[in-house]
Amino acid sequence: MADPPKRNVKELLAESKDTSELMVDLAYAALFFSDPKLVREVDRLEERMNQYSYDLRVITMLAARSREDAEALTDVLHLASCIEQIADAAVGISHVVTDVVAIPTALRADLTHADEISGRVRVRGGSSCVGRTLEELEIPTETGMWVIAIRRGSDWDFEPHGDSVLGEDDVLLIRGPEEGIRLIRQMAGAPVSEQPDDEGQQLTEADGRAWPELDRAVDILVAMKNAAEVSVGLAYSALMLRERALAAEVTTLESKSDELQSELESWVLRATENAPNVEELRGLLRLAYASEAICDAARSMTRLVDRGEDLHPIVAEAIEASDAVAVSDIVEPGSIADGKTLKELSFKTETGMVALAIQRNGRWIYRPPARFMLLAGDRVIATGPEDGEEEIDALVKAPMPAETSATA
To answer: Is the per-residue pLDDT at 255 higher than 90?
Structure first.
């Protein structure tokens, strides 16, 4: 008989959550770079996820000693199932690269204008990165970018930690806001830009001539990608903050994703008559189905909050133990943020966190654009590294009144 798993449920849930999110990041990076090696890494992570799922089921069954125990532990299995669904969707996204299913070049080019983009940068000799750890560099708070993987020679490290030391010629796989690319390239000593803009523009224009109304299809898919990522972030935030209002917003996003998918399917049916490449139509549909599956999984997660009962402590602890945290803050009158746009605040680069949503007068704005101006009373929901909480507080909290010395 095999030995029982040695990790506990909380650790397995936290690792499953972080691994599934890494899989989504790598899947879109594989798509963006058309890189089969990254696809294989997504498959490798899927094998790990399968082991996590198996171990979770074993431990959960062993822990249930009564009907009451079993009912309480259903939260754990439900969340694990949702996380697994996200991981499966990531596999579907990545396999567009290797399953002889193409996508229009215009879509790959337009992914650079999504809320967050993937990039690669090589660390040059003599840069400030060489010989320093990720923790020392504080890349998320300095640039707004996440280092999701490091390649050294032919070896990849897909679990870089704060104590990972960077060396000359290391290749960093990064993800974050488009404006962070320039900052991290400067930090790594790389040329500010080496993107093939001219080539990409020519290909985009050619695709536009071949595909009537291709721009709309591309817009739909980018919107679905953004909705999927926001819905997952809000779902975890709803679980962490135990808030039904956030769960309701996930439901709204899932409904919007359904509408977008229906619109894309209609576009594909119209496009088949003059399709220059039917495989590209299949690629579009695959990406849409994967994005919708992620939204569905996020919506399913929030049912734990909808019922209005306390979460199982293990679920709450696992969410809090993951790499990213959720923050909910109110913009106070007289704070640095009051009356300034996210761009003026350099919100992403200063805090390393992503503004998932902002609530104003009962209305929610998802993934607010850089031009969005914060006002006193706005509620900001953000997610990112734990050390970004203090940075957000510094932006949204009013300064403490200066202490006056006591008079005689």
So the answer is: yes
